[in-house]
Amino acid sequence: MLIPVFATAHNLSGANARFVEGLDGLAVIPYMYLGAKHMVTGYDHLLYLVGVVFFLLRLKDVLLYVSLFTLGHSITLMGGVLLEWNVNAYLIDAIIGLSVAYKAFENMNGFKQVFGFTLNARAAVLIFGLFHGLGLATKLQGLSLSADSLVINMLSFNVGVEIGQALALACIVVILGQWRQRNSFQKQAFAANTVLMSLGFMLAGYQFSAYLWA
Amino acid sequence: MNTETSQIVVLQTNKRKVLLASSLAFILAAAILSVFILPAEFNRDPLGVGEALGISGLSQPGAVSVETLNKEEAAFHQDSVSFQLLPFEFVEYKYPLSKGSSMLYHWAVTKSRSGEASAVSFDFHGESHEVEDYEESYSEGEGDHEGGTLIAPFEGIHGWFWANHGAEAVTVTLSTTGFYTESLEFRDGFVKKQILK
Predict the structure, then answer these.
(1) R_g (Cα) of chain B, nearest Å
(2) pLDDT tens digits for B49-102?
(3) How far is B63 from B40, CA to CA, in rounded Å?
(4) What is the spatial distance between Cα A30 and Cα A37, in angstroms, rounded to a whole number?
(5) Which residues of A touch B13 (CB under 8 A)?
(6) In this predicted model, what pLDDT tens digit does every residue of B129-142 receive, in sequence order?
């Protein structure tokens, strides 16, 4: 498979991938590290998390929403790998991009203002979690895994993803917390979500183009 | 449609503002995609701006050369050998190839005395360096010649086993070109390694 250079920020990069393919049998720490690295350097997952926790003031809510997201992506990460679903990585990444735009629109209270109703934000974060997990599954499937230790290696990758997510979230929550205390937050928040939405559209367009032409 | 979301702070906005911001977000994304990302990443230049900015096809040549470098680490070589096999003799001849490396090959068998074509048993296969005892057969059976291209599906040694089950001595002649640096001949319990120059 031809892996274009531009995709290396998001895919498991060539050298890492070749290292893992060379591994035989159990490799808990390497897979854990790759899972964490994928999450910390995966700007699409990070942007979505920023959108999700943008207006969550209480730690309790942050934990609830992030748990739903984790539940969603763990189901499809493991299901996708074990049942050998062959979904197109670019299309899934395009949907992940749209999830960022969706979340920004929801943060703007867009559904109520434009369509006159609101969607269940918890259900949405769970459902988009399922898509993010499918994306993770395609990345893991891209590394021809050896079958003998598949389950343990996959679980290690998943644990790594959660560690990476926790690290990234800690930074996001601290920065957002500081920002919220400023008076200008209300004004900047709207602009920030507009930018977030635009980045989501860009990611979606980028991945869809890659699906068509890469 | 629920009331639970009310515990989340949402922005005080109105329909016009949201629509305006969403359109702005979409237009900005479309503009950056068509001016920068599509020309640079996919060599598609809908507005012709990418050409003017000199970023068209920015990632194309790099992507191709990295791919090529990864695959063909070894140098390009040619190799021609022949073996004489007496009745019930056999030989194996293989090349170490990295995953994705390619090799063109052709072999033919003739009776040593008369030069007529003669069939042998053969097995064209690879043995993995990564997974112990893993072997994969690419083609096997009885025949007096075969040719084609192999793209090594894994890192390991790839080559042929020929056995003469006939009553007359035969000569196997093999010619290959590909990205290998050495050859291995397995015969009579010995391995003969030859560095190709």
Answers:
(1) 30
(2) 888 888 777 766 544 444 455 555 567 888 999 999 999 899 999 999 988 888
(3) 12
(4) 10
(5) 108-110, 113, 190
(6) 877 778 889 998 99
Instruction: Please compute the mean of the pLDDT values over residues B168-186 and round it to a whole number.
Output: 91
Cross-chain Cβ contact B5/A121 below 8 Å:
yes
Q: Do B148 and B84 contact (CB within 8 A), yes or no?
A: no
Residue pair B36/B50 in contact by the 8 Å Cβ criterion: yes
CB contact B13 to A (< 8 Å): yes
How much of chain B exceeds pLDDT 70, in percent? 87
Which residue of chain B has the CA closest to A203? B29
B68–chain A Cβ distance below 8 A for any pair: no
pLDDT score for A58: 85
Half-sphere exposure of A29 (CA within 13 A, CB side): 0
Suggest the residue from A202, A203, A208 to mutate for an interface test with chain B (most B CBs closer than 10 A): A202
Residues of B in contact with A5 (CB under 8 A): 59, 62-63, 66
DSSP codes, A122-167: HHHHHHHHHHHHHHHHHHHHTS---GGGHHHHHHHHHHHHHHHHHH
Q: pTM for the complete prediction? A: 0.62
Sequence-separated (6 or more) residues with CB below 8 Å from residue A117: A111, B1
Distance CA A185, CA A179 (A): 6
Largest CA distance in chain B: 96
Q: What is the mean pLDDT of residues A66-79?
A: 93
B67 vs A: CB within 8 A: yes
Q: Residues near B145 by Cβ (< 8 Å), separated by ≥ 6?
A: B106, B107, B108, B109, B117
Given this model, what pLDDT does residue B58 score? Answer: 72
